[in-house]
Amino acid sequence: MSGLEPPFITIAEASRRIARRELSPVELTEAYLQRIAAVDDQLMSFVTLTAELARQRARAAEAEIMRDGPRSPLHGIAYCLKDIIETAGIRTTAQSRLLADHVPSKDAVVAQKLAAAGGILLGKTATWEFAHGGPSWDVLFPPARNPWNTDHHPAGSSSGSGAAVAAGLAPATIGSDTGGSIRGPAAACGIAGLKPTYGLVSRRGVLPNCFSHDHVGPLAWTSEDVAILLSIVAGHDPADPGSADVPAKDYTAGLDAGIAGLVVGVPWRWLEEEAPLTPETRSGFDAALEVFRGLGAEIRAVEPPPMQAFNDAKKIIAMAELYSIHEKDLKTRPELFGDSLRYRIIAGSLIRAEDYVQAMRVRRDLAIALQQIFATVDLMLLPTGEPAGKLEPVPHSSLFTGASYTTPFNVGGNPALSVCSGFAGNGMPQSLQIAGRLFEDAVVLRAGHAYEKATPWRDRRPVLNLQPQHTIA
Questions:
Q1: What is the pLDDT of residues 178-206, one digit of tens each?
Q2: Three-class DSSP category at 390
Q3: Most buried among 32, 63, 106, 244, by the most CB within 10 A?
Q4: pLDDT tens sequence across 126-185
Q5: Crossing angle, helix 307-332 and helix 339-349, to 10 degrees?
Q6: This model's pTM is above 0.90
Q7: What's phi and psi for 46, nearest 5 deg?
Q8: What residues are labeled active site?
């Protein structure tokens, strides 16, 4: 595999070829490093590259595999991490001047698990500041760009993670999702991204945004790859107060079982009245529903509470908790925050205790109502959002005014997957969001996998201008 050949191989295929000793982890890692050198100046997806560490781990993985065989499907395969996930001895900046020199002494739990599985860390990827304020140009690094069109944004806050996977710079990554920050970049960049059930993946060692809604989860090219990653990183962590004590499982088991007989709900009121879809996105969504019908699923309308109620409760809780996290720095070093995040933290200081308590009570009622919907259907389908627009500054107040199709599943804690569902007329990816019952992440992934196999979208790749390569030391 040459340095100029786009290494778009999936985790699943790379794993099979490595196990058969047809693919060298050393050569594969070098191919990713050389592709990063050739195209990432256009994308700004990586903020810290760990090239020498990656080479060392690749050589060690290759020797281990030659001697004993692979110890996991990720053994010898590269990945990157959103730059809010702490890595021992490697700076973790959260894209903020506050943490410009922050070098953690311990790995986050997800980083520990990926390393223990034999994965090879390529580096840390761009995020919105503290996974919240952005896109911003007044923070530590410039914002990442979308590989399908570098004039467009890759969404956020796991922006660099989504861009890196879509561009073939890494086959796997881990992001975080408080209101859609895994699914948004997956949708914008045309890949797969899962917000797992709340508490399924440990958040210990991941810089917090909102304790009540933060989720950690995988992004990759396919649902199958996401299932492989989830099988590695999921598991109970007694030191994470939000961690769920559920047995570990293999999320790839039964992935090919299909979706015949599943009942799929569509929240039409959200899509037609509260936040109407554009005609092009509606057409793409209708086509996706036809694919599900053709695969044997039953489609029916469902009536969850208003989407705005989910959005309002989440915003109040998230703003109050964001302020509690950053209060000290806001009071002592406010100039080190970017304007967008500083604006949003200050907004959190205006929320009264009464408002926070009432929002938590409303959240409980909304979560219960959502689970009642899932008592009548196996899945819910809706777009993740509209295709990615131009990368440009947005009003700081946009967080409070924009509608979100993803937030309800953070409020409820339900697993939700974004997969590519086609392309708009301008070439930007369209998306489908598949949500499921609590702890039925495997069913969600099975549906995503079935849809991907039945459609041609996984065969399409972004085209980037290859620059003269420089050697990565």
A1: 999 999 999 999 999 999 999 999 999 99
A2: strand
A3: 32
A4: 999 999 988 999 999 999 999 999 999 999 999 999 999 999 999 999 999 999 999 999
A5: 100
A6: yes
A7: -95, 140
A8: 82, 157, 181
